[in-house]
Design a protein that fits this description.
By secondary structure, this protein is mainly beta. The chain has one helix and twelve strands, in the order βββββββββββαβ.
């Protein structure tokens, strides 16, 4: 999941093998986990002002900004436990991922993992209406299927169950979503990716989140530069949908940085 402020010399060979080179793409998880005993630190930003605002808002970089900090630990090979905190509704999440089956050959490698988490929105600012302040808890469970048809292409499919995707409702509901991601390696370190989450339209969250990005992967760091219509970062927030469509006038800039911490 999770890096800034520790941009020192990168360690070598501290992540387990995986179809993707990082533990998540723009927002969706992958089957990859850190090697046993390693820690992973993340810092991610989504700028809430559209790039289309131009120079008057420094192409969206003047903010405001939604920020996520995360820390994950691999207690054993193929297992990852994490803690995430987003400043949007002060969302605090605990989560986990377990690598499952893997198989195939050079022509098509397939991996499966399972992930889930629970979140508490500790300070809800968005609305004073409805039951949001009495409906702060959320949860989700995911099956992650990653496939590599060859050396340069990585594909991901993430069916997801989410509990209480819209906390503004007076009572929680159950929802389903399907995440799809594709990545093309231009070189050993440089990747381009596209990610889409199909989810139910909800009041204030009527649109599917979509992201396009460029990634740079090193042995210890992963960088992602993104354009997206989704400003919300933590999984229970992202999975509920986006308030804006993926049209050029609504594109926002974002980035993810992760850093391996081998102890």
């Amino acid at each position: 999941m999770l890096a800034l402020g520790l941009l020192a010399a990168a360690p070598v060979a501290t992540q387990a093998q995986g179809v993707f080179g990082s533990v998540h793409t723009a927002n969706l998880p992958t089957t990859r986990t850190p090697r046993a005993g390693a820690w992973l630190f993340e810092i991610s930003h989504r700028f809430d002002t559209p790039i289309s605002r131009g120079s008057e808002a420094f192409w969206g970089l003047d903010g405001p900004v939604f920020n996520r900090l995360g820390l994950a630990w691999a207690p054993r090979q193929g297992v990852m436990l994490g803690l995430l905190r987003s400043n949007f509704n002060d969302n605090l999440e605990v989560n986990g991922k377990v690598r499952g089956w893997s198989g195939g050959g050079d022509a098509l490698r397939v991996e499966v993992a399972f992930a889930g988490g629970a979140a508490w929105n500790t300070e809800v600012f968005e609305t004073a209406a409805s039951g949001a302040r009495d409906n702060e808890f959320q949860g989700y469970a995911q099956v992650i299927v990653n496939a590599a048809p060859g050396d340069r292409v990585a594909l991901g499919l993430v069916p997801t169950w989410i509990r209480n995707p819209r906390i503004d409702d007076e009572g929680p509901e159950n929802g389903l979503a399907l995440g799809v991601v594709g990545q093309l390696s231009l070189s050993r370190s440089v990747k381009v990716l596209a990610e889409w989450l199909a989810t139910k339209a909800r009041e204030g969250l009527e649109h599917d989140p979509v992201s396009l990005g460029v990634g740079l992967e090193t042995p210890g760091h992963t960088f992602r530069l993104l354009v997206t219509n989704q400003s919300r970062l933590n999984p229970t927030q992202f999975l509920g949908g986006s308030p804006t469509p993926f049209t050029p006038d609504e594109w926002r800039f974002g980035f993810n940085i992760t850093r391996i911490l081998p102890f």
